Amino acid sequence: MARRKVYMLMKKVLISGFEPFGGASVNPALEAVQQLAGRNLAGGVIVTCTVPVVRFKAIEAVVAAIETERPDYVITVGQAAGRTGITPERVAINVDDFRIPDNEGIQVVDEPIVAGAPDAYFTTLPIKAMVRAMQDQGIPAQVSNTAGTFVCNHLFYGIQNYIQQLPEQRRIGHGFVHIPLLPEQTTDSTQPSMSLPLIVAGLAICAQSAIDHPVDISVGGGAIC
Q1: Which of 84, 110, 138, 181 shows the greatest Cβ crowding within 10 Å of its Cβ?
Q2: What is the pLDDT of residue 1?
């Protein structure tokens, strides 16, 4: 009997990383993305893009990468000072309330990201599977229930809204992941940090989990307050 060749359809995971902001010279999201570009996964590959920390332009940058790369999944990534682990976000809310200006000096208060759109969108990535897989490898990780109200949440919400406008057959999984500061960002403070190799490993696990879990696992991951 002749053998039939079986070809696996490779999945593509787009991971985006923000440029430095707020006067900083480094952003761990961008540093990690630069190391993840082109990395092979089991059944997939990572592609990346750089995102400006600018209202609306951040969304435009990721939309352009989606239209070019046509990924199966998108993971948008940003830094969160004060967090001790890698934290996939559960929900994006339709409000911009910037505590500091973005990189073009824009600072808005209590304005919708998309006027007339839903108040919130939930992630469409398997965030609990991601957290479990990272924890199994000794990487601190938790589900987060707030992406803030700065450009991270702005991008999370904007991309979810963009995806919802696509024809159903083109809709893809997307979510936002916050990562801790790098050690070199905390030398003059007591804030927690995480090494770049550990962040890179954690994000690679998130990408692999997106491929491996079309449906998220059902485990507790909530918070009392």
Answers
A1: 181
A2: 42
